[in-house]
Amino acid sequence: MNATIADGTSFWHRLPIVQTLHELEKGPRSFLWYVSFNVVGWQCVLGPALVLLARRIEMPPSWVGRLLSFTPLSMILVLFGVRIISRVGSKRLMLVAWLSRNIIVCGVFFIPWVYENWGPRAAWYVLMGSTLGFCIARAIGAGGWWPWLHELVPANQRGLYFSAETMVTNLISVLVFGVQALILMNSQTLGRYLLIFMIGVMAGLTSLIYIARIPGGRGSAEKEGDIETFGSYFRVLSDLPYLRFLAVSSLSFSCVAWYTSCSILYMRDALGMSSGYITAITSAGSLGILLTIRAWGRFADHSGSARAMSKTLFAFSLATLFFLLLLPDEGWTRWAVLPAAVMAAVFNAAFNVSANRANLNFIKATGLVAYTNTWSIVTSIALGITPIIAGKIIDAWGLDGFRLCFAAAGIGGVLCAMLCRVTVPDGEPVEMSVTELLNPGLPIRTLARIFYITAGFHQSNRNPNHRAPQSPDL
Predict the structure, then answer these.
(1) Residue 281: beta bridge partners?
(2) Assign residue 111 a region: left if phi > 0, alpha if psi is -120 to 50, beta otherwise?
(3) Element (H, E) at 36
(4) CA distance 416 to 256
């Protein structure tokens, strides 16, 4: 029998994730069934286990940086997908691409044999080739995802949808990382890592069933309409407000990537943590996201993406700067890294929700595929180049290289947080004098407000239809 609250509501229906799913319309909700299985595949194939496997076969940090760059940089391929997405449709394209990527990544299962017969360097090439093939196949199909979302998710539910997607993703991730931590605990064999990849492939193949069940996503071959061509990009390039937003968003994602590309390496190589413990920390971050992301999705719908992007990026930057205080030889560092990593994960996710919402609201129906492809390409370049540079810096300077990466993420993030307020039109701008900007109490007041929102106390979490008056905080 279900536990009930005083008003007769089931306990389970009071859970944030259940409430959010009930609030979504049928179309957006159908995406979440696919997301549930896709995230298992993603976290098993391109999650922390990928970095840990790479280091297990002795791949140097500079190579790991290139490995991490494959996912975003391969997204450049969507540049050439305007016509095929428009003609074939998102659903058909994604089905073929997602099937292909799961077949290609099976190359990693040859790593033990290659490692045994030809040595570590040959195993590096197998891992690099399998990952690159997976990413290329994904990129070919990923161009259809944004137009499909724009088709099915109504404007007034976009913040809610992205928060729901993030909650589902992190609920599954908590379970996945927990299982991975148990698998990798005290692991000395490559077989443990490959078991994780096997789980990922099986989940990826299962996700195809749910892609086929999502409504819409048809191309011009199935419905009346004009085929969008490569010339649609000129419409995007003439949209100066969107280009300003795109530039600042890309710089912001680059700041995030300075942290994400080195944090796991730092915990493993500089702090000497085991693969199991690192995966447990990652799981704790996913749990933190699960508990807080609904509040940030509601805040973005309530107060606008500009405020949400600025606040979340500012908080993320403070978390990355805290890593500069973690000393490898101190016993307390092993425990102090946990809140810093969880805080970085929470506000990284909240920033992504806010930025994605802003992008969907910014783009126009005319030239839809060109807009969404441009967003994918430019942000992916920022996310792809940063890990390569970070890997080379860490290889060259060791511990000081890690610190430089954290400083770049933190300082750059604070600057981008301020730029978000003037380049993102989704939300009323705040007029602030130079005196107010230099007020030492402003960051403290902003930080207090950030944690107030994160805890779910902001009025947007109680009455999302009410718009709050503008206040002079970041």
Answers:
(1) none
(2) alpha
(3) helix 26-45
(4) 11
